[in-house]
Amino acid sequence: MSFQTVEINSVKITFDKEKTKEYRTDFNKPCDCQDCRNYYKNIQNNFELVEFLSGFGVDYNCTEEVFSWDLGNDEESLIHHEGCYGVFGKIEGEEFDFERFGVKITFQKGASIPRDRTGEYFWICIEGDFSYILEEERDLPITFSQKLQKSNIISKIKAIFRKK
Fold it and tell me: pLDDT value at position 136?
């Protein structure tokens, strides 16, 4: 193990870059859904952020989780993405966040330990509102009126089958 130490916002952070870089499970393999691919593509285009993450041994494509939600319901609306990365090490002080590279970066202490991870770890979470930049048609969220129409169609189909 080769621990490194940095200080960010007056908080000392000790981490194992190599162990973090080598850690791969089914939970942090790149996801192929549209939201995740859009998140990865936006992060990939943010060279300073990619360099910052790689300084901790983090591959921007290997999140533990990406949370996404549309901030509108048209092709031009932004998508709020939050990606969380596990890092082997510890935060020696309070959790903190700051804005840099056009995103919010949060350092959180590991609350629960995944069963295959041993030792101390913390999370680096990246959060921001991103454009849709994939070169494919965007899957927009279903609106409330679309949900009602869909449920009416399903009700009609069920009624047909009940009659038979």
Answer: 93
User: Residue 47 in 3-state DSSP?
Assistant: helix
**What beta strand segments (E) does 18-146 contain?**
65-70, 79-92, 96-100, 103-109, 121-130
Token pair listed for 95:
């959790």
* pLDDT, tens digit (0-9, with 9 covering 90-100), for 105-117: 999 997 655 556 6
User: 143 pLDDT exceeds 60?
Assistant: no
Contact 61/79 with Cβ under 8 angstroms? no
CA distance 31 to 43: 14
Q: How far apart are CA 76 and CA 62, in angstroms?
A: 27
Contact predicate 11/116, CB 8 Å: no
